[in-house]
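Extended Data, panel c. Modelled sequence:
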Amino acid sequence: MDFRQTYSLITVLFLLLAIAAMVVFFVTPEDRTWFYTLAGIAIVIRIGQYIARFFFNRNLRKEKRKKLREQFPIEE
């Protein structure tokens, strides 16, 4: 699976969890346990997604820089 497809899948999962958390928030106003659980999981997934994107883009930039240096060597 491509990184973009995985990223999109994780985004959809986050949105579904966020929507479910909001529904639970308004449906069960006396007990917020499920709301906190769903919202917490959604937040953890989103933070993990940002961290993964940072590290993936970092490796991608290194590979791109290496290819460019091979194509266009700098003469000193």
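The two ends are 42 Å apart (CA to CA). This feature is highlighted in the accompanying rendering.
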